[in-house]
Amino acid sequence: MAKEGEKKTCGQVLDEWKEFFWNPRTHQFLGRTASSWGLILFFYLIFYIFLAGMFVLTMYVMLLTLDEYKPTYQDRLATPGMMIRPKGKSLEIIYNLDNTETWDAYVQTLDNFLAPYNNSVQVMNNDACLPDQYFIQEDSGDVLNNPKRACQFNRTMLLNCSGIEDRYYGYLDAKPCILIKLNRVIGLLPGRDGISPYVSCGAKKEDVDNIGELEYYPPNGTFNLMYFPYYGKKAQVNYSQPLVAVKFLNISLNTDVNVECRINSNTISPQSDRDKFAGRVSFKLRINK
């Protein structure tokens, strides 16, 4: 008898659920009539259209306050970062002199990176500027001086690291070239009194005897002032970032050499409280034979 009672109770529950989904007597679906469903769906339709409209209006008003050529608010870095090319895996440049495949990728990377710096491209797109002074291009009140011009940085300025006379950038004869660039910062003025910032490289303490002699191109490893200030990608579409090439002339073979390069300037702090790697870049160089 208990089992029959249980079956009857289950049947009643099932009937109640069926009636909840669709009640043929009241024509209700999930407890609501068609008119009730219509009203509630209409309410939510209007509600979400209103929310979407508020969002679009807010975004429109916000965009009206922005300048498409430069950031409205800029948390300018006191000391910009640096990067190398080729950068290898985890900033490690390791290759074997006798195995072309181990260094061919580095050469290809430098070829591709320097293609926009070909003299023909630079002459066509950029200006020959006066060195050792900022190339400032101010706006005339509300009239924007855009697009702004940019100074030529010709590939030949890298001399023995240009890939023109030595198409292997020194990797074939254990005298590799490393290119260094300073990260772009809008409005940065990295020197005063006509003194350009420059790059200096050295080995970590344990590798001082293994790094050998270095050469810098352009001479003294300078980022000339004429390439500053930078006005932004959209305002200065043809801007060519200045480079410094470092050539290792007699680095020790079959040895890990940990190198650190840093920017030196009379306006840029040598270190940053927020980023200990600002203004410097460290990498490992190893040439096996």
TrEMBL record:
GO cellular component, one term: sodium:potassium-exchanging ATPase complex
Keyword Flavoprotein included in the entry's annotation: no
Sample GO molecular function, one term: ATPase activator activity
Regions that span the bilayer: 39-66
Compartments, as annotated in UniProt: Cell membrane; Membrane
Pfam families: Na_K-ATPase
Keyword field: Cell membrane, Disulfide bond, Glycoprotein, Ion transport, Membrane, Potassium, Potassium transport, Signal-anchor, Sodium, Sodium transport, Sodium/potassium transport, Transmembrane, Transmembrane helix, Transport
UniProt topology in membrane: Single-pass type II membrane protein
Any one GO biological process: intracellular sodium ion homeostasis
Function field: This is the non-catalytic component of the active enzyme, which catalyzes the hydrolysis of ATP coupled with the exchange of Na(+) and K(+) ions across the plasma membrane.
Family in the record: Belongs to the X(+)/potassium ATPases subunit beta family.
Name assigned to this protein: Sodium/potassium-transporting ATPase subunit beta
Source organism of this protein record: Paramormyrops kingsleyae
